[in-house]
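Supplementary Note 3. Input sequence used for the single-chain structure prediction.
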Amino acid sequence: MPPLLEREVVVTQCYTDLVDHLLSVGRIDDARRWATAGYEATIDNLGGIASGLQKRLRKMAEHTGDMKLVAAHRALEFFASETPARISRCKTRRRLPESGLR
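The predicted structure, written as discrete structure tokens, is reproduced below.
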């Protein structure tokens, strides 16, 4: 099954399944490579898959202790989110100049 996943992943878009399998068998470098490739392939039209892959990349960075990369992933999660809290913060920041506050 894993070789089939790797051969067919571009067609099936099952990047998360492939990355999870590679992680489960200890193929960390391959998992990172496929998570990155999958993120790039899905970010424009399959945001849910891209988000899941990005979270897996962050967890891999946490596991290796690369805190700068973890911070970069956390920032991406924050700025890419469309949560009500983030939207509210963005609206507030746009209004700050009008209020005379900085």
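The helical segments are 2-12, 15-24, 28-42, 47-64, 67-80, 84-99. The chain is about 80% helix and 0% strand.
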